[in-house]
Each structure stands twice: as C-alpha cells, then as structure tokens.
C-alpha cells in the first residue's frame, strides 16, 4: 500500500511539473505571488520544473522496475527459496 502511494505521489508530481502542462497551470497561478515570481524568472523556474519532472519520471520507473522484480520472484509457479 505504501509503495503504491509513493508511485501515485511521484506520478502527481510528474503531472504537475511537466513542461507541456505549464500552459495549463499558468492561468491558474496568474495574479498570485508565485505567478508574478514565475513571470519574472520564467527561464529559471522552467529549468527547475524540468529537472523535477525528469527526477519524478525516473522514480516512477524505478518503482515499477522494483515491483516487476518482486512479482517475478513471487509468481505462482516459483519454488520458494530456503
């Protein structure tokens, strides 16, 4: 359950920080302090969000890879180790 929540959290972070979704997020933050800061430092924040997006996608794939390894070891046909 905890691992599933972590995957969902990383997925949500990837969705929010995705560079292609900035066009949808910018109107939502317009008129706020963060929106004004974003307008002033657009290049820097876009770079930071791009890095956060890449890290979150990497973590999602790591969690999926870990789950595939665990599923491969504990399938119905495998003999338990002693």
TrEMBL record:
<protein>
    <recommendedName>
        <fullName>Transporter</fullName>
    </recommendedName>
</protein>
<feature type="transmembrane region" description="Helical">
    <location>
        <begin position="44"/>
        <end position="61"/>
    </location>
</feature>
<keyword id="KW-1133">Transmembrane helix</keyword>
<keyword id="KW-0472">Membrane</keyword>
<dbReference type="Pfam" id="PF05052">
    <property type="entry name" value="MerE"/>
</dbReference>
<dbReference type="GO" id="GO:0015097">
    <property type="term" value="F:mercury ion transmembrane transporter activity"/>
</dbReference>
<keyword id="KW-0812">Transmembrane</keyword>
<dbReference type="GO" id="GO:0016020">
    <property type="term" value="C:membrane"/>
</dbReference>
<dbReference type="InterPro" id="IPR007746">
    <property type="entry name" value="MerE"/>
</dbReference>
<feature type="transmembrane region" description="Helical">
    <location>
        <begin position="12"/>
        <end position="38"/>
    </location>
</feature>
